[in-house]
Design goal:
- The chain has 171 residues and is mostly helical.
- The protein folds into three domains: 52 residues; 47 residues; 59 residues, no CATH class.
- The protein is built from eight helices and no strands.
- The longest helix has 22 residues.
């Protein structure tokens, strides 16, 4: 069987522009080798697969938030170009509309820093870095907290960092 490298290259380029996941591009090449579509039908076949096999395409949340911020908020043309190549023209336009009025609310929630847990006696900040065990001071703080506020409330505080009352190692 003769391999048509120029045809494979055309398929790979068209797939990249259409937002096909890099891991799925070979599936399109294999489809072409199995005579499922010809050189003239590349675009049509990609559109057909977008409906029949959406798992081959980038997911709707599959974009770099930092890159999108640079592209749409800072109006960086290089970042816009990178994002366009990454997600494809259709998804790029969707993102452009979504980011038109600033950073979308759902993205802002993801960008908010996690609460500072360094004062929580069950956090990793109170462990010995070599062993992963809580320090003596942390164990004292934990027991004092249980005595002061009760087991139920102390358990909720421990659960905030994925630990349980009575653990000797951080979660």
């Amino acid at each position: 069987m003769n391999i048509d490298y120029s045809f494979q290259s055309e398929i790979q380029s068209a797939c990249a522009r259409a937002g096909v996941l890099p891991t799925a591009i070979d599936d399109f090449v294999t489809d072409a080798e199995n005579y499922k579509f010809s050189r003239d039908e590349i675009g049509k076949y990609i559109d057909q697969m977008r409906v029949e096999r959406p798992h081959r395409f980038a997911m709707q949340t599959d974009f770099d938030v930092e890159l999108a911020t640079k592209a749409f908020i800072n109006r960086n043309m290089t970042a816009q170009s990178q994002l366009y190549r990454t997600v494809g023209p259709q998804r790029f336009e969707e993102l452009k509309k979504m980011w038109a009025n600033g950073i979308p609310e759902d993205v802002q929630k993801k960008l908010r820093p996690a609460a500072d847990q360094s004062r929580n006696p069950w956090s990793r900040a109170h462990t010995d870095p070599k062993t992963g065990r809580y320090t003596a001071k942390a164990m004292t703080l934990q027991s004092n907290l249980v005595k002061a506020i009760g087991l139920t409330k102390a358990s909720e505080i421990a659960a905030a960092v994925g630990a349980r009352v009575g653990d000797t190692k951080a979660a």
